Amino acid sequence: MSTDQKTDTTGPAPEEAAPAAEATEAPAAAATAVVDPRLLVREEGFAGYIADFRRKMKSGDLGSVPVVLGLILIAAIFQGLTGKFLNADNLTHITQWIAGPGLIAVGIVFVLLLGEIDLSLGSVAGVSAAIAGVLSARQGLNEWLAILIALATGMAMGALHGFFFAKIGVPAFVVTLAGLLAWSGLQQYVLGDKGTANVVNEGVVADLDHYFVGDGDVAFTWAFAVLGVGLFLAGQLLDSKRRSAAALPARPMAEIALRTGALAIVALTAAYMLNQSQGLPLPLVIFLAVVAITDFVLRRTTYGRQIFAVGGGIEAARRAGINVAWVRISVFMISAGMAALGGLFIMSQQGSADKALGGGNVLMNSIAAAVIGGTSLFGGRGKTWSALLGILVIQSIITGLDLVHVDQAIQYMITGAVLLAAVVLDSVSRRTQKSSGRG
């Protein structure tokens, strides 16, 4: 056999190789042309968003849709049964009552993002309120200083939980269960034989629940609503500008206008209803401010992204250079700090700190609020706004059942059923997303 013949048999002829090369390059070109449909939505306008919404629903990414529909259904049912659920006074009371357990729920969101649980937060709320009450009312300490000491004590308890969990390796369930028992005992010890510590008359803690901004002046309520909508619009425009500058798909102005308009309708309607009663409650202002700040921390800071990374996978986060132990400890500090602040609001509502504060269904309602609002029990998915939505659902159910004079035992069962439904929905949603390649 000649050399030329050997060459011919070892590979395709030049004219045969070209089609093969083109065939090889075609799939590669097609692969590079494939773009995540989520990135194309902004360029397709509202039709793209409708398609994206349908895709999310089919893949199990339900977002806040079940919660919003649930709130509408709850309001319709109890308004139909009582005729006064949507009265201005009743809605004002709901906005006051959500602050205490809602703040605890914000802290729980941080822990759930790690895929963990904190069972001690009710006791942390109780002992923090007891410390603030005893120092200010009994010992005569400056109330602001007493509040700071109570909050610092709560965060120290969280740091202790986080240390045993992150450094020693004790499961969070066990550590916080021990904390629940230990801090409950400390709460009783601090309160002593009297068993209660009243709030200082017309003091800082007393005003947390009973004060209305501007002494009920309607102008403050309208101004707060307009300010909130304005800040939202500014944030949307800034985000769009940054994404455009980075050559990333950004929301069209029409969509920004629609989102801002929808928020304006909700905010101004709420302002109108509150002004029909006593005006803007201080608890609502503080709660919304905390939710907005913590949401910014989670979504817009490096620390927030680290929390999501640790919740998504510890080993991957560690290999990415994240200090996993510090993130875990700090998250438990934040959750306990939020519980301490929530305890002060509950103390203000009761008018005193007693041995029962933080007990009962406080912890369960707070956990339920976080889960019902959309935070996953499996970690890595959720936002602090879910605490707001969830606690609105819980408190609306409680208030509505009170209006129809349902026994508390039945309320517990109904709340438990709602929590179970939320967990089932989360599990089904997670399984659906995995099957669709999004989990």
What this model shows, in words?
The protein has 439 residues and is mainly α. It has a domain at 71-211 and 281-433: Orthogonal Bundle (ABC transporter involved in vitamin B12 uptake, BtuC), CATH 1.10.3470. Helix content is 76%, strand content 1%. The protein has 20 helices and two strands. A two-stranded antiparallel sheet has the order 1-2. Helix 8 packs antiparallel against helix 9 (143-168), helix 11 (204-210) packs across helix 17 and helix 15 (302-312) crosses helix 17 (324-350). The longest helix is centred in the middle third of the chain and has 28 residues, at 218-245. The chain is globular.
Treating each run of at least 4 consecutive H or I residues as one helix, how many helices? 20
Describe the main β-sheet briefly.
Answer: 2 strands, antiparallel
Structural class: mainly alpha
Quaternary arrangement of the chains shown? single chain
SSE run = HHHHHHHHHHEHHHHHHHEHHH
CATH architecture of the domain at 71-211 and 281-433: Orthogonal Bundle
- Strand order across the biggest sheet? 1-2
Low-pLDDT residue spans: 1-43
Q: Could you name the CATH class of the domain at 71-211 and 281-433?
A: Mainly Alpha
